[in-house]
């Protein structure tokens, strides 16, 4: 959970870096953000914000399943490995998004992370049935 939080905070820090840099180069103005991001905002500037939104959507379910597993004392090695695999796939997804941004590559990493997340939930509830 800490690694996911760190990834989220790193992307959060990248947003003002890209925005301030673009403003200093006079590529954008504050008005470009009055109602979100205007069409004038380049992908280089807007993508970190979109990546941040991605890190606040489905990962919420990751945090919940991790906490539920911890509270119920059901964190076994399989769940732990699945959690680290999820984090690795989310790091990969974010790295793709922030660099070469190939949609197919990004989709594969995103879909794989979602499969792992679903598996974590299934593992949790199957494990509860055996207790």
From TrEMBL:
The protein, known as: Membrane protein
Subcellular location: Membrane
Positions of transmembrane segments: 60-87, 107-128
Main localization (coarse): membrane
Keywords assigned: Membrane, Transmembrane, Transmembrane helix
Organism of this sequence: Azorhizobium oxalatiphilum
Gene3D superfamilies reported for this sequence: Membrane associated eicosanoid/glutathione metabolism-like domain
A cellular component annotation (GO) from this entry: membrane
């Amino acid at each position: 959970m800490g690694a996911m939080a760190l990834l989220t905070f790193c992307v959060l820090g990248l947003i003002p870096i890209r925005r301030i840099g673009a403003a200093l180069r006079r590529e954008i103005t504050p008005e470009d953000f009055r109602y979100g991001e205007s069409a004038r905002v380049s992908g280089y500037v807007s993508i970190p914000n979109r990546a941040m939104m991605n890190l606040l959507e489905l990962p919420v379910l990751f945090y919940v399943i991790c906490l539920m597993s911890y509270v119920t004392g059901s964190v076994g090695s399989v769940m732990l490995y699945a959690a680290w695999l999820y984090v690795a796939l989310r790091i990969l997804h974010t790295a793709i998004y922030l660099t070469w941004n190939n949609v197919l590559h990004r989709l594969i990493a995103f879909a794989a992370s979602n499969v792992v997340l679903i598996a974590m939930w299934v593992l949790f509830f199957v494990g509860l049935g055996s207790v």
